[in-house]
Amino acid sequence: MANGSNEPQVYHALALPEQALAKGGVEILRLGIINDELYVSALPAFDTPAPWGEVLAEVTKRLGAIYAAQKTSLTKKDIMVQIAEAYLAEMGASPVKAKPAQSKPAKSKSKTAAKPAARRKKR
Fold first, then answer.
1. Domains of the chain (ranges plus CATH)?
2. DSSP string covering 32-87, please?
3. pLDDT in tens, 68-104
């Protein structure tokens, strides 16, 4: 073999969901990691690329639920935020720093307030 090993190489594929086996359907995306490299097969299932954003959002939600069920210290929302932050960073977005909460200015006790310019009478 090319990698110098005599051991057979095995690809561990996930099983199809039972609903797909029972109802049929179309696989639109398959991902695999081989030697730390991501491989992607996709079917151009939509007329425009925008629906892929909806697919990726739904995948994020489902991954959040899967991880939350396995890792009890994290909530689904926490996991979704971590995935979204990593996604945005990978896409080149600048990190957003949380701004400290600002207190509201004290209300004026004066009953005379300036009228907005649009409401002032013209003289």
1. 18-95 (3.30.2370.10)
2. EEETTEEEEEE---SSSSTHHHHHHHHHHHHHHHHHHHH-TTS-HHHHHHHHHHHH
3. 999 778 999 999 999 999 999 999 988 767 666 666 5
